[in-house]
């Protein structure tokens, strides 16, 4: 690890969650599943339900303001780069969300751009922010910020996308600075299974199936699985191994002492998969949050999990924290941090 890299720290984070929820009973009624299937198989006790005002960019702005409130040493004018790390599905098509947020916050000295990485975009953001700070001395403070509302793209009645029923809505943000004396970013690893690139996507609204009256309200406007059997086999035989690989490589590359992190900020998984991950890493249940009472928030899962752990006192000075997530594509990413001074 380079000396400059070890000086990059997480100054603060911010989270916004809608104030209303969809219960497991409501998910069961809409999907035609039993309550046991929703709760015990899919890991949904309840999930955030966005209002009409809870659009991706406004939610992201609220999370960014939350992060700035927690970092009195950072003024919006100090931010050098704003990076959108939310979902590709946002308020408007072909909109540069980061610039919209830049104006809302008054980050007048920054430049901005959007990243697309599906469920791992926030971790991509950590990697890009780190590389920018190492490569350009003028970049000292970076805001990673994004909103997710992919809940609109999930057809509750489609059995092939049942594993996406936990999808929810939120805003998330992280502020990084170099040099910074605390919460150092130690390493980031990304793994891609490119042969799964075209297995899960929303057909409608792209150039192949443009927006049209014929497409609106049809299955083309929701997530579809090209080869359901292949995806289920992939989940059963490969996903856990890829998660373990990216987490272990991150621990090794970040030179995190010990075999397992003190806290694992993991994206929402089905309960069986979540338990398998913890058992394989030798992590106790209280060292990771299943997010069963808030749902799946794509790239914001790891930020929400980190926030909840800090609020509960599960992360202390010296704690080794690993954030890990997966995105359709399929991509796996993990980042390691050393908390405190």
What structural class is derived from the secondary structure elements?
Answer: alpha/beta
Number of helices: 9
CATH homologous superfamily grouping of the largest domain: Thiolase/Chalcone synthase
CATH topology of the largest domain: Peroxisomal Thiolase, Chain A, domain 1
What is the CATH architecture assignment of the largest domain? 3-Layer(aba) Sandwich
The major sheet is characterized as: 5 strands, mixed
Tell me, briefly, the overall form. globular
Helix % is 25-40%
Number of strands: 13
Low-confidence residue ranges: none
Output the helix-strand order: HEEHHEHEHEHEEEEEHEHHEE
Distance between the termini: 18 Å
Task: Kindly report the spatial arrangement of strands forming the biggest sheet.
Answer: 1-7-6-4-5
The amount of beta strand, in percent, is 15-25%
**C-alpha-based Rg, rounded:** 19 Å
- Average pLDDT level: 95
Highest-level CATH class of the largest domain: Alpha Beta
Structure keywords:
about 350 residues, alpha/beta, Peroxisomal Thiolase, Chain A, domain 1, 4-stranded mixed sheet, about 30% helix, about 20% strand, globular
Written description of the protein model:
The chain is an alpha/beta fold. The protein folds into two domains: 3-181, 3-Layer(aba) Sandwich (Peroxisomal Thiolase, Chain A, domain 1), CATH 3.40.47; 186-338, Thiolase/Chalcone synthase (Peroxisomal Thiolase, Chain A, domain 1, 3-Layer(aba) Sandwich). The chain has helices at 3-6, 24-31, 35-41, 56-69, 97-105, 121-135, 228-253, 271-281, 301-311; strands spanning 9-16, 20-23, 46-49, 81-84, 111-114, 141-148, 170-177, 184-192, 200-201, 224-225, 263-266, 320-327, 331-338. The strands form four sheets. Strands 1-7-6-4-5 form a five-stranded mixed beta sheet, sandwiched between helices. The protein has a four-stranded mixed beta sheet with strand order 8-13-12-11, with helices on both faces. The chain has a two-stranded antiparallel sheet with strand order 2-3. The mean pLDDT is 95.
């Amino acid at each position: 690890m380079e000396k400059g890299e070890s000086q990059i720290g997480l100054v603060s984070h911010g989270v916004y969650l809608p104030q209303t929820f969809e219960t497991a009973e409501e998910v069961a009624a809409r999907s035609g599943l039993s309550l046991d299937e929703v709760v015990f198989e899919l890991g949904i006790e309840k999930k955030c339900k966005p209002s009409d005002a809870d659009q991706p960019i406004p939610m992201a702005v609220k999370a960014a303001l939350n992060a700035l409130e927690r970092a009195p040493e950072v003024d919006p004018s100090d931010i050098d780069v704003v990076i959108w790390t939310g979902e590709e599905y946002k308020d408007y098509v072909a909109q540069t969300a980061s610039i919209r947020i830049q104006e809302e916050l008054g980050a007048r000295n920054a430049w901005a751009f959007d990243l697309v990485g599906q469920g791992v975009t926030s971790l991509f953001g950590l990697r890009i922010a780190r590389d920018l700070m190492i490569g350009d001395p003028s970049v000292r403070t970076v805001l990673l910020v994004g909103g997710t509302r992919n809940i609109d793209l999930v057809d509750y009645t489609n059995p092939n996308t049942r594993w996406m029923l936990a999808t929810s809505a939120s805003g998330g943000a992280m502020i990084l600075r170099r040099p910074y004396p605390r919460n150092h970013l130690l390493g980031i690893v990304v793994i891609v299974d490119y042969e799964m690139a075209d297995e899960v996507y929303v057909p409608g609204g792209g150039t192949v199936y443009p927006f049209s009256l014929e497409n609106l309200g049809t299955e083309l406007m929701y997530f579809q699985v090209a080869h359901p059997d292949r995806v289920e086999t992939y989940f059963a035989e490969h996903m856990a191994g890829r998660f373990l690989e990216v987490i272990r490589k991150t621990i090794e590359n970040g030179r995190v002492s010990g075999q397992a992190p003190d806290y694992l900020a993991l994206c929402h998984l089905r309960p069986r998969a979540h338990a398998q991950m913890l058992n394989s890493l030798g992590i106790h249940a209280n060292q990771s949050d299943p997010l069963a009472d808030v749902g799946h928030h794509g790239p914001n899962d790891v930020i929400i999990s980190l926030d909840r752990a800090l609020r509960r006192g599960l992360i202390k000075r010296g704690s080794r924290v690993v954030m890990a997530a997966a995105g359709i594509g399929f991509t796996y990413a993990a980042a390691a941090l050393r908390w405190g001074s």
